[in-house]
Amino acid sequence: MTATSAVKPPLLEVEDLRVHFETDDGTVRAVDGISYTLERGQTLGIVGESGSGKSVSSLTVMGLTRSRNARISGSVRFDGKELLSASDDEIRSIRGDDVAMIFQDPLSSLHPFYKVGWQIAEAVRAHREVSKAQAWDRAVEMLGLVGMPEPRRRADSYPHEFSGGMRQRAMIAMALANDPKLLIADEPTTALDVTVQAQILELIERLQREFDTAVVVITHDLGVVAEMADEIAVMYAGRIVERASADTIFTAPQHPYTWGLLSSIPRLDTPRDEQLVPIPGRPPSLIQLPTGCSFHPRCPYVQEAHRRIDPQLQPVAGERDHVVACLLEQDVRRRLWRELQSGAAPSAAREDVIEGDAA
Amino acid sequence: MAAYIVRRLVWVVFLLFMITLITFVIFSVLPSGDPAVLRAGRQPSPQLIATIRHELGLDKSKPVQFIDYLGDILPFLGHNGVDFGYSYQNSEPVLPAILTRLPNTIFLTAGAVILWLLVAIPVGVISAIKTGSWLDRLFMTLALIFVSAPVYFLGLVVLYLFANDIGVIHLLPGNSAYTNAHGFFQKAKALIMPWCVLAASFAAIYARFLRGNLIDTMQEDYIRTARAKGLSERRVIFRHAVRAAITPIVTLLGLDIGLLLGGAILTETVFNIQGIGRFAYQAITDSDLPVIQGTVLFGAFFIVIMSLIVDILYAFIDPRVRY
Amino acid sequence: MSTGTGASDLLHAQDSGIDAIVAGNVGVAARSPLQLFWRRFRKDRVALAAGVFIVLLLLIAILATPIRKLVGAPGPNVQESGALDQFGLPTGPSSAHLFGVDQIGRDIFSRVLAGAQVSLKVAFIGTGLSVIVGTTLGMTAAYYRGWVDTGISRTVDILLAFPVLLLGLGLASACSGAQGCLGGHLQPGLPVVIVIIVIANSPYVARIMRGQTLSLREKEFVEAARSLGASNRRIIFREILPNLVAPIIVYTTLFIPANILLEAALSFLGAGVQPPQASWGQMLADATGIFQSAWWYMVFPGMALLLTVLAFNLVGDGLQDALNPRSGQSR
C-alpha cells in the first residue's frame, strides 16, 4: 500500500572536505578534513577562532573558493547532489536560491552605490522570471518580514543610510528572498552592538521556524549559538575537534579547546572574582601546523605522545552523536571537566587529575 | 548642495584672482625683457621707448597696472566691456585672438579624450579580469612604454613613419596639415596623428589606473555578496565591480580635460596646431604680457571649473557623497 | 602635469607602505617587514633589471668623460664640419661617430652622455628637494591644523590650479634675461629647472603627505607618546616621520620619471637647460628641423629618454608591489 519511500537524504552532507591553497609561502591547509551532516530545519553552529577554517569551509559549500590555486577534495552533497564537482553554472544557480549566505560586515557587504531594494530585487531576478516591479515588491515584502519599519521607503534608500542592525536585517532579507533551504550566517553579529546582536539572532531564529530553513551559524563566540544551535561543531586548525548536540557541548564537553572556549565567556551567574581564563597562545599557522595534535602547544594537559600522534575524531562511549578528537582518555577528560566546573584553574586541574594519576 | 556650489564659486573667483596676481608678478615684476624695448624695434631712441612705455601703461606703478588690468577684464567694472588688452607684438586684441584659437584646442582635446577612453576602459577592464595572462602582460608593457615616452618623441616618430609628405609610409597628413585644412573632415583627418599621440600616454595612464582600481575593487566584500547571490560573473564584474572602480576616473578625467583645454603645448608645437597652448608658448617667448596673462587665465579657468564640475558630478555618481 | 607624464597616477597611487610596515605580518617564520619587502622585490626580475639599468646609467653619467674618451668620440660641443657630408647635411652612425652627428657636426653619442648627467641631476636633486619641501609642508599642515593647515592647504590648491608647463615656461622665461631673476641669484638653465620642479611637485607631495599624516595622527601610538609628555617636535620626528618613509620612497620613485620628462619638455621648448649644455629634450627640439633626413638625431636622444623613464617607472612599480602586495601586480 505505502510506496517504498527511500529515506530522504540529509539536506547537507559534508564528508572529509579538504581545502588547500597553494601560495608562495607554502600550502595553506585551511580546511583539513571535516565532516558533518545537517537536516532540514536544523541549526548547526560552527565555532572556532579566526584562522580555524570555519569560514572557508562554508564558502566552499557555496562554491566561492574555486580559484586557480585552490585544491579542494572530499564531498559536499546538498539535497543529494554533489556540489564539488558541479559545473560553475550549476553551482551558481544554487547560490542565492537554495543556499544563501550572509556575512559579517553588512556595511561593506552591500554595494554602496545601489539602493537596498534594488540589490534585493537583483537577487530575486537572478533566479526567478519576474518583472522588475514584482521583484521590487518582493524586496519590500522581505524588508517588512525582517522587521524593518517603513519598508517601502527603506527599499528606496542606500546602505550607508541605515544603522548597523538594519543593514544586517536587509542582508537577511536579501538572503531569504528566494526562500532558500539553507542559510549560512558567517559571524552575523560580530560587527554589531550587543543589544542589536540579540535582536538579529532572534530574527534568524524566527524566520527559520517560519520558513523551515536549515541554518549554519559560524562564529567565534560560543555564547552566540548557545540558544540557537541544535548541534555544535568546534573547529580548530582546519579540523573539527569536537561535535555534539548543543546541550552536550555546554554541559559535558570533552575537548580541552572547548573547555577553554567555555571558560572565556564572561557570565553573569558566576562569582565576580572568578577569573576569565583565556586560552594562552595564538592559533597556529595553517601553513606550518604543529606536529601531532594541532592543539598541543596550547593545551594545559599536553603529554609527550601528543606531540607525535595526530588524534582522529572518535565517538564518545555511551553518548549518541558526540565525537571528539583528543588523545587523553575519556575517563581523564571527564574528571578534568568536573574539576574545571567546580572552579579549579586548568593548572590545578592538571595537577590533580593527570599528575595525581601518575603518582 | 546649492550652498556648496556657491561656496565653491566664491573660491573659484578667489583662485582666479590669485592666479592673475601670480601671473602678473611672474611676468611683469620678475625681470625679463623690457617689453617697451622689444616693441620699439631696432636701435630705438630713448624718447621712442618712453612713448611706447606710456602707451602700454608701463610707466604706471606695478600695483596700479595690476588693478587697471583687473578692471579691464571684469565685465562690469571696466570701461568698455571685457578687454583683455592688446598684444605687445602686433597690437591685436587678446581676447578675440584667444577665442579664435580655442576651437582648435577644443577639437584636439575632444578627439583625444574620446580616443583614449575608448582604448583605456576596455584595456583596463580586460587586464584586471585576466590578471597575469599574456594579454594582461602585453597590455601593461605597452602601457608602461607609452607612459614613459615623451609626447613629442612619439610625435616625431609618428611623423617620421606615417606623414604623407615626409614619412616612410605615406599615410596621414603631417605637420602643418591642420592649419591648411578646410572643413570638418579635412581637419579631422589632419588631427588623426595628433589625437593618437596625445591619447597614447593618457590611455596608458588610465588603463593602468583602472586595472589597479578594478583589481582592488574585486576584493571588496560586496563583490563576494554579489557572487553569493548567484549572479553571473559578467554581471558581477560590470554592474558591481566596474561600476565602483570607474568613479575615480571621473575625477581624473575632469582634471585632465581642464588641463588640456588650457592648451596641449607640446602636441600643438610638434604638429603645428594653432591652439591656445602654442599661442601661450609664443607669447612667453616674446614676453608678450597681455597675451600671457590672457592664456594663463583661460587655462586656469578651465582647470578650476572642471574641478568644480567633477566634484558636483561625483555627488550624483557616489550616493555616499553629500554636500 | 600637462606633459602627460603620469602625474595623475601620483595623486591616486595607493597608500602602499604604512599598513604593511606598521602592522604585523602573516606568521610563518618571523621576518621583519623590511626582509619581506626585499624578498618580494627581489622576485620581480623586471624591476631588478630596471634597477640595474639605472645603476649603469648613473655610472655612465658620472663617468661620461672617460667613457667618451675611451670610445674616441669628441666632446659634446666640438663641432666637426668634416663630419658633414658634401651637402652640408649631418652623417649618420659610423665608427667615428657612434650615434652620428647633428647639423653642426657635434657628436651625438657624447651629447647623449652629457644629457644623461642633466636628466639624472634633475631627477634626483629636483625630486629630492621637492619631497623634502612637500613633506615638511604636508606634515606641518596636518599636524598643527587650524590656521597653519588652512594657509598651507589653500596655497597648495592655488598652485595646483596652475597649468604646470605654462608656469614652468613662465618662470624660465622670466629668468632668461642675462641678469637672471631674484636679483641675479637665479640664473637660467639647470637651477631654474630645479626650482620649477620643486614648485611643480611640492603641492602634490604636500597634499599626499598631509593625508598620510592626518591618518597617522589619530593612531594610538601618537596618543601614547603625547601622554608620555613628548614634545610636538619629538612626536613629529620620532613617531610620524618614520611611518612616512614608505610612502615617501614610493612617491619619490613615481615622481622621478615625471620630473625627467618635465625637464625634457622644458628643454624641448627652449626654456630649460641652455646651450651649450646638452639635454635630451633640447636635442629632440633641434631634431624637429631635420629628423626626416637625420633619423639618428631623433632616435637616440628619444630612446635614451624613453628607456630611462621606463626604467624608473619599472623600479617604481616594483617597489609599490613589494610594499603593498595584492593579488594582481602592477604589471
Written overview of the protein:
The complex is a heterotrimer of chains A (359), B (323) and C (331). Chain A is of the alpha/beta class and 359 residues long. Chain A has helices at 54-61, 88-94, 106-109, 116-127, 132-145, 151-155, 164-176, 194-211, 222-225, 246-251, 256-263, 330-341, 346-358; strands at residues 12-23, 26-38, 43-47, 70-78, 81-82, 99-102, 182-186, 214-219, 231-236, 239-245, 314-315, 323-324. In chain A, helix 4 crosses helix 5, helix 4 (116-127) runs parallel beside helix 7 and helix 12 runs antiparallel to helix 13 (346-358). The longest helix of chain A is centred in the middle third of the chain and has 18 residues, at 194-211. Chain B has 323 residues and is mainly alpha-helical. Chain B is flat, with a radius of gyration of 24 Å. With 331 residues, chain C is mainly alpha-helical. Chain C has 13 helices and no strands. The chains are: A alpha/beta (359), B mainly alpha (323), C mainly alpha (331). Chains in contact: A-B, A-C, B-C. At the B-C interface, helix 1, helix 6, helix 7, helix 9 and helix 12 of B face helix 8, helix 11, helix 12 and helix 13 of C.
